[in-house]
Structures are given as structure tokens and as C-alpha cells.
Amino acid sequence: MKALRSIGLVLFLFSFGLFLGLFFVSDYTLTKEIFETKVKTEHQESLRPTVESLFGKKYSTTFSFANAIARVIDQVNKKFRQEQQWDKVIYDDYTAILTKASTSGIITENTALLFFLVFGVGVIGALLFILPKVSLELPGIKNNGIFHHALNNRGWIGVLIGTLLIVFYIMIYFYDAYIMNWIILVEPLKHWIYPQSESSQWFLYGFLYTFAVLVMGVRMLIKYRHSKYHIVRTISVMFFQLAFAFLIPEILVRLNQPYFDFKNMWPLDYDFFDAWHINMLTSAGGLGIFMFAWGITLFVVGVPVFVYFFGKRWYCSWVCGCGALAETAGDPFRQLSDKSLKAWKVERWLVHGVLVFAVIMTAGVLHNFITGTSTVFGLDTYTYLRRPYGFMIGAVFSGVVGTGFYPLMGNRVWCRFGCPLAAYLGFVQRFKSKFRITTNGGQCISCGNCSTYCEMGIDVRWYAQRGQNIIRSSCVGCGVCSSVCPRGVLNLESKDENGRFGQPVLLGNNHVSMPEIKSVN
Amino acid sequence: MREIVIIGNGIAGITAARHIRKRSENKITVISSETKHFFSRTALMYVYMGHMRYENIKPYEDWFWKKNRIDLVNDHVKDISTTERVLQLESGKTIAYDILIIATGSKSNKFGWPGQDLKGVQGLYSFQDLEKMETNTENVQRAVIVGGGLIGIEMVEMLLSRKIEVTLLIRENSFWNNILPDQESRMLSKHIREHHVDLRTKTELEEILSDDNGNVKAVVTKGGAQIDCQFVGLAVGVSPNVDVLKNSGIETRRGVLVNEYLETNIPDVYAIGDCVERTYELPGRKSIEQVWYTGRMMGEVVAQTICTTKTKYEPGPWFNSAKFFDIEFQAYGNVGNELQLDEEEFYWEHDGGKKAIHFVWNKNSKIILGINVFGIRLRHEKFDRWLREQKSIHFVLQNLESANFDPELFKRHEKEIVEDFEKSMFGIKSTVA
Ligand SMILES: Cc1cc2nc3c(=O)[nH]c(=O)nc-3n(C[C@H](O)[C@H](O)[C@H](O)COP(=O)(O)OP(=O)(O)OC[C@H]3O[C@@H](n4cnc5c(N)ncnc54)[C@H](O)[C@@H]3O)c2cc1C
Ligand code: SF4
Ligand code: SF4
């Protein structure tokens, strides 16, 4: 069994190494034919004089090639801008388009084989590593060695993975041409789903994301196999990621319908009210209109009703895509969240700040849509609201920081400090919900397992050791505090609202009154 | 404003300090030579096992003490003069007090075995013991733990987490059988062996053998067996730590003697927690209670006595909890290891051997006396009430479902338990539907 695990690890490292290696393998040569087929005719004329010098020139790295193309386009655009020929400025992402078409080498010749070697072998390796745990360890909480391990405790493996993730996210969002080999690598799958379509950095991202959720979901199922609560919620997030986030939108596109993730909602889905998006949905016939109405119903009715009955967990740790990654791939890092009171203060400012920003941005965008203008109070909405939001919150916060920092700051950095939907769900959870975590009489021994493993950085022990219900807007109801508690003190419950905020009860001596408790903040 | 000085920053001393602060503006000083800040002793094992770091087992952040004006002194009290009301510290300093609270905890027992002071032989109580265990178990392949109590089994678990093979020597027929009835004790023994522990029952330590460098190399049992090992854990119980009281005039027997108000024989000197020995009886409780909860309750009581109203230490029904590898344990009321003549019992065990529940009640009155439960979580609050209100076993079974505290979606066993109860009690006509 141990040997199997070692083989699995070797296979997985092989496929991961191969994946990283593929970044470097191709040659890039732009030809006249490529130029003429990929560049729009109206742009060909203005680009040709400068681009021509690149024809036939062979580049061996994606950086040098993509930079060369980008430079040429910049030059041309600069000229147009100087001459104030605004209508001629080129906004198409030719860098990525031409890089893709100009790539040649092992990746284009053996795409399917490489796909199998990376992802097929990767899955086999990962499963061989994960599954034997069933016979090696009895079911139960096994957090042995977590704080001694270089992966889980910000050691060199953690730092390395964090760095890779951060670089990867930066490239996905801002330099997609650089990762063209990987985009091409997943093309066979894209074609299998929809033959006429092309892979993009977003398809690559969606695929890797789903891959991570599924593989690490299996790990999660095994690690917490003694708890039906974790089994059910893990299967739930795996399902929603695979079906709702990944497959259904792709199939919809194949059926000529709008790309739509039925479980995503505003304000997490911050472009929902963008004019192009509303137009896309409302012009797509009955299904499009339904999607639009569905999206609104989800956050207007779905959130308050479901949070009232179940707490925000119904979304954050059962349905949401960010939650799905955090609860599967992120599980090894949950203990790295900051539990200090200071962190909680920062959290409240940040997360509510982002919510306010999202509301203002959306109001501006909607105002423009309704009035048919492009400014609010004389300021250009796109420049001053929509683009900064997309860049700072959408890309940098939720992506680069939110996931890249898993191995450094825990798996819920985005959910805790940045997600505007979490802030909204949290409001409802805090003020109008049946959900709370109850504590068991006087049984707490203040050991700290609950606080340590709370991914949201809630100091659960603070409440448990004084017998107080835990009612915190940030609690995503993952249930791990309850699982790791060695004394059976914590229980996630949805019951009568009355008594939810009751005085702390710590069972103990007769006739000892609890003096007025000072609040923590 | 009075100067209140507390010796010991464990759960007892710290609870007293916190509650005194909540209720008054007195000056509070807490002295300890163990660590600067309060930590959870019950969580020491998790630090060794890598579940947590030391900073995770501190229940309050370091700024807490200053903010609440609780002065921490990291020093050892050498001597107490109750006539002058002054403490002599190791560093040479002295501290005067108006009110003194002794919360010095326990220390590990040693029974004079040959070799008990060799390198690689130790108990586990203090933070220093934890550090020692860290160095003592480097490069160890095989260890022997002596004593099958709660600390013993924790040490076993700790060592296994480092892939060290462990032999556990216990005097009884099965694990913790001096406390637990045979049924659950057997179930736990099985579980312990499932974790590849070499559990040797009815085995006592004779001596510990040394190699040429003064390191432990083996233990010899009373039966004459020699077990090679490089580490020996002594976990044969703890005793109140009353060393500092020797010349103080404060009365001690095994522990510091106190009355129901936790007062010692000297005015304005109180004692709380592990170090205490009660001079009066409390039903269902021993005169020395070395558990976390007692320290906490006594801390609360003494704070109320000092600040507002004189209050008796009158804990509610006994409760306790522990975890043996993967099996959680809770106890409410008293289930002895042997059934008394006027008692009746019912034991249910799940087929998997990981869940069990044991009820004991009075034969004549049918009043519930206690319950041991394994692998199922029950509500403390319910059992506390039912025990206080002297509910019958039938009432308890009827309402068992309402006392379940397991997470949502977990399999429930109440129906099965009640059915089995009825089957086994054909003599008694149960009213349980
Ligand atoms: C490994 C382990 C696991 C345990 N697990 C559990 C459990 O799961 N559940 C449970 O209920 N109980 C458990 N216990 C028992 C529980 O920890 C104790 O009952 C409790 O900590 C006692 O608290 P206390 O405040 O009375 O004393 P302590 O916590 O021992 O604190 C006394 C402090 O006083 C200091 N001190 C003593 N003398 C002096 C002096 N002269 N000068 C300065 N400082 C001094 C000591 O160094 C110590 O820091 C466990 C104990 C151990 C060792
Ligand atoms: S408090 Fe518990 S359930 Fe809530 S997020 Fe933290 S660990 Fe999860
Ligand atoms: S609630 Fe449980 S895990 Fe948290 S401190 Fe208390 S005993 Fe430990």
C-alpha cells in the first residue's frame, strides 16, 4: 500500500513536471498565411508594413514571440493615437491569436497524447496516492504532522506552490499568450465538447479548476470519510463545479445559447449587469430571459430564504465555485488563516468595502444601461468604476491573491476578505437566520483545534470556552471546527431563532452567576 | 483595592484572575514558572503531533493580559510567609499580597522504580516535559509507556504520530478498567490494538535498564520479560503539587486542604484546581479532582467569593470527556467500573465496535445515576438537568433523541438503543414506545 502511494506520487510528479515543461517546448513562426487568415481584413492593411518583418522568423520562446507581436501592434496603435485616428486603433487580442496559430512542435503534433500524459497520468497518480489511505489509516481526524510539513506550514513547498499559482494567475489574466502551449494542450477536450470551438485561457482555467476540485475532492472524501456531513457537502461542491460551472455553460454555447453558470450570482458575478451581458441574455430568446430572471431571483429571493433556513453555508460550502476550490484543493491550508482580533477588524473593513464598491459600480453600470449614457456625474463609468473593479477585485483580489495565497494565508482569503456576495450572505446570516453553532454545556477544554482549523479565521474557541453560541457573519458552515473538536463541543444547527443570541451558558458550579460579558470587539 | 496574588497560571488560576477582573478593580498578579502565558495543558499532545503550534494552544492572545490589567510574573515562588503576607521568589524579588490564591496544579507520579531517572525516561505534565519529549524521542524506534490512564494513552498516540512503535503496559485486564466497566474497556482495548499498539495487560514495571551512557535501553516487567526501547513514558497518575507550601503553615495532606468555600486554614489564602484536597464530602466526587473542569469551576467560585458573595464550591453532576484515538468519550453522572448491589445497568454497543452507551440506574427507584457514551455526542445540558432532577431511566430513554448532539446527517441510533433495551429488560415493562 505504501509502495502504491509512492508510485502514485512519482506518477503525479511526472505529469506535473511534464505540464510545467510543456510551457517551454514550442517554436513560433508567423507566416503570411497565418497573418492573412487570422487578422481581420480591415486591420491587415495597417499592420502589414510593420508585421511583415516578422514573417518566417522562428522564435523559440513564447515570451520573445508574443512580445514581438505586441510591440508591433503597440507601434501601430501609437501612430494612430498620435494622428488622432481613434477609429483605427486595434483592440483585438492579436497577440494571443497569432501566438496560437504560429505555435508548432510537439504540443501541436501530439496534443492528445500529451493531454493524456499530463491529465490522465496525473489523475492515476493522484488517486494512487490518495486512495490507499483508506487501508493505511482508520477513519477519523488525522492532522498529524501538519505543522511540521513544508507544504502545510508555509515551508518551501508551500512557498513554491504559492509562487507558481500567483505567476499562473497573472498570466491567465494578463498575459494569455505566454501560456499558449497549455491552452493548446486542452484543445482536444474543448473540441470533444464542441468541435467548432477553440480553446482559450478561460477554458484552460475552467478545466484546471474543475480538475483540481474533483481530484482534491476525492482526497477530501477519504480524509473525512467518518463524517457524512463532509461526504455530502464535498460531493455537492464537486457536482456543482463539474456540471454547473464547467459542462453546462459549454454545452449551452454549443447549443447556440448564452454561456451561463446557473449557480453564480451577483455581486460575485460582477458583470451580470454589464450592458453587453444584459443584451446578450435578453436577445437570446426565452432561455436568455429566463437566465436573466433566474440570476436576479437567486440573489433577491434565494439568498435571504436559504440563508434564513440553513445559514450561508448552503452557498459557500455546498454550491459556490470559489468555495468548491477552497474546500477541496484548499483543505491542506485551512490552518493558515489568521485568527487574531486584528485580522477580524481588517476583514470587516475590507469585505464590506468591496460590497459597497460592487454596489456602486453596478449602480453606475445599470444607470448607464437604462439611460443609454456612459457616464455618471460626468465621469466615465467604465474608466472609473467598471474597469478598476474588474482589475482590482475581479482579477487581482479574487484570482491572484484569493487563490495564489492559499499556501500562505489559508484557503479562504478571497471568501473572507474580498467576496461581496459573502458579505451580503453574512449580513443575513448574522441578523436573520436559524443557523448557529451551539456549544455543549461545559465540555470545552480550550484546546484550540477548532480555531486552528477554521478556514475563516474565526476564533471559535473564544466562544466555545465560555459556552456561547457562535454566530458570525463570516462562518461558511464548513463544519470542520465541529469535526476536529476532540470533546464533541460544537454543533452546526438550524433551529428556532429564539435564544440564538442568548447569554453564554457554561455548565458548572451552582449559584455562580456570569458577570456581564464584555463583547470581544 | 486589594492586592490579589495567584500562584499558578493554569486553568484554575487564570479563570480566577479573569473573573476577579470582570467583577472588580482589584490589583491582580499571576505568578508562574512554567510559561509566560496561559496555555491549554490538555492540548499539549497536539503540539507534539503537529496538529497545532504552541501559539495555537494559548486560549487568549498575548495582548489580552495587559488590556485586562492582569500582571504576569514569570518566576518561581520559593517560599510563602503567611504572617507577613509576602512571597519569596526564585529571582530574589518579593511580592506582597492581601489575598493569596494557590493554584499550583499537579506533578507526575514516580514510584521509585530503579532507573526512573535515566535519560529518555519521563512523564508528561508541563510544557518543559513536552520540550523534553521532543528531544528524548529523536531517532527513537521503540518506546514503552507505563500506565493506562488518560495521559498514558495520549503519550501512545503522540509517539505513533511520529511512527514510533509503542508498547503500553497496564496493570488491569483491559484499558482503563480501574475506571471503566469491562464492556467499554474491552471495546477500547480492541480499538487501541487496531492502531498497532502492543498493549500488554496485567503487566507491571519492575525496572528500567540503562546502556553505558545512562540512556534507557530496555524495561523489565514484573513477569520478567525484557522489552528493548529507547524511550519510556511514565504515566502513572499525578499528585497535587504542594512543594511550595512546606514551611508556610498552610495545611496539606495529599493536597492543600480546603473547606467548601475553598478557604485554607489561613485567612485570605484560598486554593483551587488540581492542587486541592477537599476536607468535606461531595456526592459522586473524589476529594481530589484533577480535571480541567474542576479548575475552571473553582476559579469562578473563588472569584465570586472574593469579589461579591461568599460562595460554596458545589459543582453540578460529574461530567468528563476524552478521546481515545478515533473514539470520543463523554461521561455524565457516575458509572463505576463495577456495578453496585443497588444498581442496574444497560450496555449497548454498535456492531462496528466504535460506538457504545452505558446506562446505570438505581434498582429500586429507577433513578438514572450515570451514563458513559462513546462515539456519539450527547448534550451536556440535558443530562445535567436529568441528573439533577433525578429522572428515571425510562424518561431518559424516552427523551434520548432530544439529547443527541451529533452533527447533521449522522446516523442516529436512539431507536435501536431503545429496542435493545426493551429486549434485554424483559423483566421490566418499559413504557418507552
Ligand atoms: C497531558 C495532559 C492531558 C490532560 N487532558 C485532560 C483532559 O482532556 N480533560 C481534563 O479534564 N483534564 C485533563 N488534564 C488535566 C488538566 O490539565 C488539569 O486538571 C488542569 O490543567 C489543572 O489546572 P490547574 O490550574 O489546577 O493547574 P496547572 O495547570 O498545573 O497550573 C499550575 C501552574 O502553577 C505553576 N506553579 C506551581 N508551583 C509554582 C511555584 N511555586 N511558583 C510558580 N509557579 C508554580 C505550574 O508550573 C503550573 O504552570 C490533562 C493533563 C495533562 C498533563
Ligand atoms: S466556524 Fe466552524 S463551520 Fe464556521 S467556518 Fe469556521 S470551521 Fe467552518
Ligand atoms: S470547542 Fe472543542 S476544539 Fe474548540 S477549544 Fe473547545 S474542546 Fe477544543
Q: Name the overall outline of chain A.
A: globular
Share in helix of chain A? 55-70%
Question: Which oligomeric form is depicted?
Answer: heterodimer
Major sheet of chain B: 5 strands, parallel
The small molecules bound here are:
flavin-adenine dinucleotide, iron/sulfur cluster
How many strands in all of chain B?
25
Indicate the CATH architecture of the largest domain in chain B: 3-Layer(bba) Sandwich
- Main beta sheet of chain A: strand number and arrangement? 3 strands, antiparallel
Question: Nutshell version of this structure?
Answer:
With 521 residues, chain A is mostly helical. In chain A, 60% of the residues lie in helices and 4% in strands. In chain A, the strands form 3 sheets. Chain A has a 3-stranded antiparallel beta sheet with strand order 2-1-3. In chain A, strands 4-5 form a two-stranded antiparallel sheet. A two-stranded antiparallel sheet of chain A has the order 6-7.
Can you walk me through this structure?
- The complex is a heterodimer of chains A (521) and B (433).
- Chain A is mostly helical.
- Chain A has helices at 2-22, 32-38, 41-51, 62-82, 94-102, 106-109, 111-130, 133-136, 156-174, 180-185, 187-193, 201-223, 228-254, 275-282, 285-310, 313-316, 321-327, 341-371, 381-404, 406-409, 413-417, 420-431, 449-452, 460-464, 480-484; strands spanning 27-29, 58-59, 103-104, 375-376, 379-380, 435-439, 490-494.
- Chain A has 25 helices and 7 strands.
- In chain A, the strands form 3 sheets. Chain A has a 3-stranded antiparallel sheet. A two-stranded antiparallel ribbon of chain A has the order 4-5. Chain A has a two-stranded antiparallel ribbon with strand order 6-7.
- Chain A starts with a helix and ends in a 27-residue tail after the last strand.
- Chain B has 3 domains: 3-107 and 239-307, 3-Layer(bba) Sandwich (FAD/NAD(P)-binding domain); 121-236, 3-Layer(bba) Sandwich (FAD/NAD(P)-binding domain), CATH 3.50.50; 319-426, Enolase-like, domain 1 (2-Layer Sandwich).
- Chain B has 433 residues and is of the alpha/beta class.
- The mean pLDDT of chain B is 96.
- In chain B, the strands form 7 sheets. In chain B, strands 3-2-1-7-19 form a 5-stranded parallel sheet.
- Chains A and B meet through helix 13, helix 23, helix 25 and strand 7 of A and helix 1, helix 7, strand 21 and helix 8 of B.
- The structure holds flavin-adenine dinucleotide and iron/sulfur cluster (2 copies).
